[in-house]
Amino acid sequence: MLSDSDITALILTLKLAAISTLILMIIGLPLAWWLARTQWRGRFLIEALVALPLVLPPTVLGFYLLIAFSPNAWLGSWYQQLTGSQLAFSFSGLVVGSVLYSLPFVVQPLQTAFSAIKSDLLDAAATLRASPTDRFFSLVLPMARPGLIAAMVLGFAHTLGEFGVVLMIGGNLPGETQVASVAMYEHVDTLQFGNAHALAGALLILSFVLLAGVYATHKRYSVLRW
Amino acid sequence: MSLDLSLDMQRDDFALQMDIRLPEQGVSAFYGPSGCGKTSVLRVIAGLDRAAKNQVHFQSAAWQHGDTFVPAHQRGALLVSQHSDLFPHLSVHGNLQFAAARAPRSSTRFALNEVVSHLGLAPLLDRSVSKLSGGERQRVAIARALCGVPDLLLMDEPLAALDSVAKQSLLPYLEQLSRHFDVPIIYVTHSLDEIAQLADYLVVMSRGAVAYHGPTAEMLTRLDAPLAQAESAESVVPAQVVAHDAEYGLSYLDSPMGRVSLVQRPLPLGAEVRLRIAARDVSITLEPQTGSSILNVFPAVVDSMMRLSPALTLVRVLAGEKPATAVPVVARITSLSANRLALKPSKSVFIQAKSVALF
Fold first, then answer.
1. CATH number for the domain including A35?
2. What are phi and psi of A82, to 5 degrees?
3. B74 to chain A: nearest residue by CA?
């Protein structure tokens, strides 16, 4: 069964995933929209940059973040001046790491969905006196809804499974940075296979239910199959 | 002042250059083959395309001039395209409501209910737009633009994607649109039929430039232009239904040429229509023929002539009793007949129209 500390770890994981997903959508929507519409020739550079976490070992990303979070680096010192606490080994640090790590899982389905929207429809809406912001909210978002849902679920689910980055920048502080995957690793490390089973099962079921939900409601869209 | 265009822009394979002023009422049509740049002109008017040297003025507003560029959503030039571009996530009513909600002022003329009933859309309102036929989609697209209270309606080949049955069912709506809703229309097409039926003012384009332009009836009868020289050339004459004759099954119409008789049509008295008279169906006589089966005979004066080939001559006449209201009509006759009748400009003649078509 799940121990109290395991439940704490699970709740922390869910909280991290929820906050990261929210921030990912705020960053991902305009970024994906821009990538889907821009004619700029250097677009591929940004696309490659966004996709990096797909292929990069999470520990590499975590290593660079750890260095950036140090009070000697500008990001770390800026954060420390702003909040009085340090970014490394903090929940906020985990959020930053998760956002970067899960960015491609949010941007790519959004970009695919946005690219599928015919520019003729937006042109028609423009002549019907819909401003660019109006067009984005009244046409683009509703028409890209399957992509939006896919992006949210993938961003959320991918953050749930985060391990390497957390280990590098978060450590293993219960209630602050000890997420479920790390807690599970610790159980295995200390040969507590019963607890590991419980946590692993919980994550497995949660992830499966999330993905099944997406496929069930939007199986006629192929957004998830890129 | 109405719509003034001064365009100078580079397309992929040619330059688009024109200086033209279009009338502020009725249907102005851009006509030309595919790829001549007509759609580009429309997009410039709409504010969807932009090139630094273009100038667009509509009524008292500078839509584009120097650094001034009014974006599409602030122009009030509403676009109906070939593919209707309905919003797929909204119902028919939702599409109309989208436009109505963004109209700058409420208008009884363009009220949603008014537009719906005029275009016969009431049975379709709750339908998903994916369940509409091609003709229905286009009717909804037109209705949507009207609900948006247009200052100017832009139509880009609205019939081109439809089969002929759908075309015929949509044409009557288009015909009266500009007059009924009192909105100027810029209409882009490559179909001469649509020009003859709909256009009040005609701009003929060729590779990015204006070949010639003017009132449709004048342009269709310009002997030095390809339209009048074509085998299918026809003249267009406005007319009004004044009586029906049940005994002989005829409808009588008043036109500037005189009284026209046609096989009876289900048209209300007072209906304004256009007559199309094929140039090859017009013959010329020096006296009014009484011993003829042809009903439609009108006095006319020869305006100009052109020998098309050794065998064929085009004769442009101004038909009608009164010179002030006489209308141009082209006759395609043999050069031999033209010679025998000694036709020459300002000679008084009679024209006989073997058949007169009506839209």
1. 1.10.3720.10
2. -70, -40
3. A129
